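note to self — DONT lose this again. spent like an hour looking for the file last time. sequence + predicted structure for the chain T wanted, 144 res
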Amino acid sequence: MSKKSKSQGMSIRTMTILVGVVMACFLWGVAAAMYDNANGGLWIAGPVNGERLRRPSPLGMLIASVIAYVSNTVMYLPHLPWVVGFILTERTWFAIVALLVEGAVIGFGFWMARLQKTLDSGQAFKTKRRSRPIAMPRDIDDDD
């Protein structure tokens, strides 16, 4: 077996593992946000000293949301057992969805590995055809 050249890029196994890790981090952030919300944590600023709040810009909301998401994700890492327990007891649907997402990532990785194996075999687009006899027209007898 020859050594892989650098032009082939990363292996399918490495890609699948990295996608699985990214999805696990994303799902952990969502689980931490659910736990934080259930415990009364609010990331929305209220009016200070009776002043009215102006409508935030979309870019400002996006930046604030990303900061809140990332800080929640990191802040609740020490509380991992409690967050997992909360998700399994109170948000069972999310645990099922998370398992399905990770299962889909693994299934996609297996499918990609199988496709790569088929493409490397050289027989990717060749199909086996049965040889059938040529159908010849039959004579119709006019016995009527």
